[in-house]
Amino acid sequence: KAITYLSLAGEQALSGAAYREAALFFADALALDQPVAPGGGSREDRLRRARWERQLGEAYLGLGRTGDGRIHLSRALELLGVPLPTAKRQLTGGLLQQLAIQAAHRALPAAAVRRQGRGREEALEVSPGIPAGRRAGVKIGAGCPPTPALLWDVSPQVSLAPGP
């Protein structure tokens, strides 16, 4: 029960730009909750912890602690199964893959909307972290520049195309 109230208090503090309090609430919630290894635990456990990691990262960014923010945003993405690329080759491959996905969404928007399914919650959780990651100056790897691909839809399950 304490974890639920810590989460709610953290969300309220974050929405009111009380970043220091939000960081304390989310850090306490994560400390009380059982850790989940990437790819381990139930889907709900991973989603819950990823949300708290993202929100803690956003709180740290609001405090100007970009290094801490980057760490927690990266953990959130790992928990959701969408780790950041670490090499230029991975970055290039991901960029080309996203170009193909976006072209398909533009060509067949109705098909993209129909595919929204089980992974929608995870994809929507990843989306808010993307601009925060850009604010943190997330580097993809040594010598790799930040990329506009971080702005794109990282999951093909979610589309901005209009519904039927």
Protein traits:
elongated; disordered C terminus; mainly alpha; 164 residues; 0% strand
Number of strands: 0
The helix tally amounts to 7
Beta-strand percent range: under 5%
Order of helices and strands: HHHHHHH
Which value, in Å, is the CA radius of gyration? 17 Å
General description of the model:
The chain is mainly α. The chain has 7 helices and no strands. Helix 3 (43-62) runs antiparallel to helix 4 (66-79). The longest helix is centred in the first third of the chain and has 20 residues, at 43-62. The protein is elongated. The termini are far apart. Mean pLDDT is 75; it is low at 138-164.
Note the topology:
Blueprint lengths: L1 H14 L3 H14 L10 H20 L3 H14 L8 H20 L1 H6 L5 H16 L29
Helix pairs in contact: 1-2, 1-3, 2-3, 3-4, 3-7, 4-7
Structure in a nutshell:
This protein has 164 residues and is mainly alpha-helical. Helices cover 63% and strands 0% of the residues.
